[in-house]
Design a protein that fits this description.
It is a single chain. By secondary structure, the chain is mainly alpha-helical. It has helices spanning 2-15, 24-40, 51-63, 73-83, 87-106, 110-120, 123-127, 137-144, 160-182, 185-196, 202-218, 222-235, 240-253, 256-270, 295-300, 306-319, 323-337, 356-369, 373-387, 399-404, 411-444, 448-462, 476-502, 506-519, 524-536, 540-552, 570-579, 585-602, and strands at 395-398, 465-468. It has three domains: 1-122 and 137-148, no CATH class; 158-274 and 285-304, Tetratricopeptide repeat domain (Serine Threonine Protein Phosphatase 5, Tetratricopeptide repeat), CATH 1.25.40.10; 357-396 and 417-554 and 568-602, Alpha Horseshoe (Serine Threonine Protein Phosphatase 5, Tetratricopeptide repeat), CATH 1.25.40.10. α2 packs antiparallel against α3, α10 packs antiparallel against α11 (202-218) and α23 runs antiparallel to α24. The protein starts with a helix and ends with a helix.
């Protein structure tokens, strides 16, 4: 900063005098050093225009008896480079041109950079091919540009040669990111590899390898992606986005142990304050990190909040059946909620976190599976109490409303109403799921009457939903929420029916199983329990007929809950096991004996 201030004062002193050709090489060199010192004193990316360059070019024209006040920067550069032929000014102007290119590059004006280097290069140089086949024209232009010699009497704070190398690295990196965003993965891979071989710090090199890993992953090459991501961590272990992407690749490969290990390391690392990554080369005022800052890079290098990683650990453990670990992680996550988590996690959709009620329900599911039924009931009660005031007494889904969404008059109003209905449906599903999990928890505790009460409350909630229109199914806007509610209704009917069987209220159980089959025809669990209820009611002929029908159905025809439609939300997956009919050899043997006896009577 002291150097920047000193160069700034010197430049002001020089500009206090009229522009003169003999003094211009010194003035332009001081301007070059001043701009570099200003850039080097900042840790943030270069933004805006380099006003000092414009004034410097205007003073060059003034000394030559010309003017260019009304010209834009591109036209101004064109006029100066084409009309100013003084030999002593060529090297200072070329060096200043590389700085202008850096400012334009930081602004994403690649066309302006290409045009400038076209002017800086002679016709002979610009026609040469200094890059391997297939490399970008802009890179070719910059590589073809000859670095002006440095005058011994005018030292530079950073050589034009180094600046050229940094520009080449930054351009390859930036264009690689653009091709990656556009889905041109082979081109992106080539450009990013070019950048990786360029002039940059360890921090930037690790970022480039991380982007290479993401590119390889999108090309369907997970092993290659892992190699790049591991290389990123070898270069700079504090490049935590590489660790995050590695966990995602391991998840894609189904290597759960490696994924959980990566997530654990990521969580631990996020809890520490990492030291600044050491540079792989001497300190430079103009650096690649000051030139490359695009939304796609920000997205790829987004740092997860520790709570997001903690949730991913909990989720992956639950999905993999590691119930004890899942419970521990979910409880840790819920404790983070007390620390103002919502203020710390981005709300732009980039977060890995689902809606908070879903996390509570997943935690309740994990607690249930771990045998901590009372804790599961308590967690569900939190969801129920928080959503109760958000649910209308009757929730209607009209076909006309969804059709209005696409029409112009009233479309904005319809969109707002649909968004409100979607939120109400979500709240309804969360509360119904809370009652559902409480029903199963009470059942596991042997409290059948309490379980029936909670299952009935769940069904009462689901019945608030009313579909209006010629077609019973809503369109895509609300379809997912409606399907979840229908699944909850199915699970709750089967759950209550099972409790009725335990209480020997067989007729009520039969009604619930019959309603279940109306919702999901051929459902194997509901059909099996229906057989049991009929048998207990001594309706043996009907039970045997249903049993035969069930035995003859193929797995693809039986309406298995997990095999149709959208995947179930994670908080409902455990319900598939809850409703599964326990294989009963005694019931099967009794029905087979009955059928044999009936066959003998017939013969």
């Amino acid at each position: 900063r002291q150097q920047r201030d000193e160069f700034g004062e010197l430049l002001l002193s020089i500009r206090g005098l009229p522009a003169a050709l003999p003094a211009l090489p010194l003035e332009l060199t001081v301007l070059y050093n001043s701009l570099l010192s200003t850039a080097g004193a900042s840790d943030s990316a270069i933004k805006g225009e380099a006003e000092g360059i414009r004034l410097g070019l205007l003073r060059v024209l003034e000394a030559c008896g010309a003017c260019g006040q009304d010209l834009g920067m591109e036209e101004l550069w064109q006029k100066v480079l084409q009309e100013v032929t003084v030999e002593e000014l060529q090297a200072p102007l070329h060096r200043l041109g590389t700085l202008q290119a850096a400012w334009w590059l930081a602004a994403g004006c690649l066309g302006s950079v290409a045009g400038l280097f076209q002017l800086l290069s002679t016709a002979e140089e610009s026609g040469r091919s200094h890059c391997s086949e297939g490399q970008d024209k802009l890179l070719s232009l910059i590589k073809a540009w000859r670095v002006p010699p440095e005058g011994a009497s005018l030292p530079l704070v950073q050589s034009a040669k180094d600046l050229k190398e940094i520009l080449c690295t930054a351009i390859a990196f930036l264009q690689g990111l653009q091709e990656l965003e556009a889905g041109n993965f082979p081109t992106a891979l080539s450009l990013l590899q070019e950048a990786a071989g360029g002039f940059c710090s360890k921090k930037i090199l690790a970022q480039i390898y991380t982007c290479l890993g993401c590119c390889a992953q999108r090309m369907g090459k997970p092993q290659t992606a892992l190699q790049h991501l591991k290389r990123a961590l070898q270069v700079d272990f504090h490049c935590l986005p590489a660790l995050s992407h590695a966990a995602a690749v391991y998840h894609e490969l189904g290597e759960t142990n490696a994924e959980l290990q990566a997530l654990t390391l990521l969580y631990e690392a996020l809890g520490k304050n990492p030291p600044a990554a050491a540079s792989s080369s001497p300190y430079f005022l103009m650096r690649t990190e000051l030139l490359v800052h695009t939304p796609v890079l920000t997205s790829l290098l987004r740092h997860h909040h520790p709570s997001e990683v903690k949730y991913l650990l909990a989720q992956r453990c639950l999905q993999d059946g590691r119930v004890a670990d899942a419970v521990e992680h979910y409880l840790d996550f819920l404790s983070l909620l007390q620390e103002g988590l919502q203020q710390q996690v981005p709300l732009d959709g980039s977060s890995a976190l689902p809606r908070i009620p879903e996390v509570f329900l997943e935690a309740a599911s994990a607690l249930e599976q771990a045998g901590r039924h009372q804790d599961a009931i308590t967690v569900c009660e939190e969801v129920i109490s928080r959503t109760t005031d958000l649910i209308p007494q009757v929730l209607q889904v009209e076909e006309k409303l969804e059709q209005l969404e696409c029409s112009s008059p009233g479309a904005e109003l319809a969109s707002g109403l649909l968004s409100q209905k979607k939120e109400s449906l979500c709240c309804l599903a969360w509360r119904a799921a809370g009652y559902l999990h409480q029903g199963w928890a009470w059942a596991k505790l042997g409290k059948n009457k309490e379980a029936v009460t909670q299952f009935s409350r769940c069904l009462s909630d689901v019945l608030r939903l009313q579909l209006h229109g010629s077609g019973v199914k809503p369109t895509e806007t609300l379809q997912a929420e409606v399907e979840v509610l229908q699944k909850i209704r199915l699970f709750s009917l089967i759950g209550r029916g099972v409790q009725f069987l335990e209480l020997e209220r067989h007729k009520e159980a039969l009604l619930d199983f019959q309603h279940s089959l109306q919702i999901s025809p051929g459902d194997p669990a509901a059909a099996s329990y229906l057989v049991q209820a009929l048998w207990k009611l001594n309706r043996k002929q009907e039970a045997a007929a249903q049993w035969q029908k069930l035995s003859q159905s193929s797995p693809g025809e039986d309406g298995q809950q997990g095999g149709q439609g959208r995947p179930l939300p994670l908080y409902l997956v455990s319900c598939l096991e809850q409703v599964m009919f326990p294989h009963s050899e005694s019931l099967a043997r009794s029905i087979q004996d009955y059928l044999r006896a009936a066959a003998q009577d017939t013969s």
